[in-house]
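Worked Example 4.2. Read the sequence first, then its structure tokens.
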Amino acid sequence: MNRRNLMKATAATALFLGLGLSIRKPHAGSFEITKTEAEWKAILTPEQFAVMRQEDTERPFTSALLDEHRKGTFDCAACDLPLYASETKYDSGTGWPSFFDVLPNAVGKKEDNTLFTTRTEVHCRRCGGHLGHVFEDGPQPTGLRYCMNGVALKFVAA
């Protein structure tokens, strides 16, 4: 193999791996609400679709929900299922809306082995929409930090 072909092969491999890291397939599963890709695209913004259906991540410190402190619930942006009570929201300093607890029967979890590490992905249990990740470095009483993408949530005032 000559140097030019080696460079082409290296570039192609890097591109393939890069695409594999940035465009992930939504997890398989049986959910109460299912739609085709076209149907999801019709009801979600492009940013919501990228996050909720392709497991992308919004940029930190861009969510309007960071400054939301009223009483209410944070619901799934795709199917309106209440996910988090406002009383469990706190400022984690990470740049994403964070909660120390979830409402009963609201989310599902799965292992996420992307980005060269193992994390726990959180999704809406009703529609399967990707919400974010949960970590074990949160405040008491749970010790958990549900680090959510703001575009995957909508606030409903009480």
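Now turn to a second chain, presented in exactly the same format:
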Amino acid sequence: MACWTRGVGAITASLLVGLALLQAQARAQDRPAVAAIAHAGAHLPEHAARGEVTGISDGDTLYLQVEGAQVRVRLARIDAPEKKQAFGRRSEQSLRELVWKRVVTAKWHQLDRYGRPIAEIFVDEFDVNAEQVRRGMAWVYRAYSRDPELVRLEEEARAERRGLWAEPNPVAPWVWRKQHLATGDVLPR
């Protein structure tokens, strides 16, 4: 069911298995080693993989099964509310509705400090990342994206008070995380 496609650079199943191992190290709290390895490969040629979504962590993170390896993938260009934040669970549910147990294409050229590909996710030609913004389930992560189409979708969702924009004063996830890191309420991304 899962297969690799080639982007600008070729990618092998061994690299994906390596990413899965890297992510296991991150979970084991070997963060300095993981950060060094992820930084070394942070700006890769564009890669693409097709696989089945086997898990959803939150509104902007999923697990992708490709060629026997399960990799945690961070959605690019967006930032969804944290689980303990208003609309956090609803954002997670929205992503689940879009991709759970579906074969998707992930396209990426960068890894984060935890070794996760930072990917654009597509179901056929449908842009899942943009749909999360359109539904009001995520912000455009403006520190990393100035995509005018995403900004337009966010402004439209805000004007129509969709999703998290129905709240009187929604707090951006990056602000919420900063406020709650000191209390131990939230783990760093």
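Notes for the reader: Strands lie at 3-5, 43-58, 61-66, 69-75, 78-79, 103-111, 117-123, 126-127, 139-140. The first strand starts at residue 3 and ends at 5.
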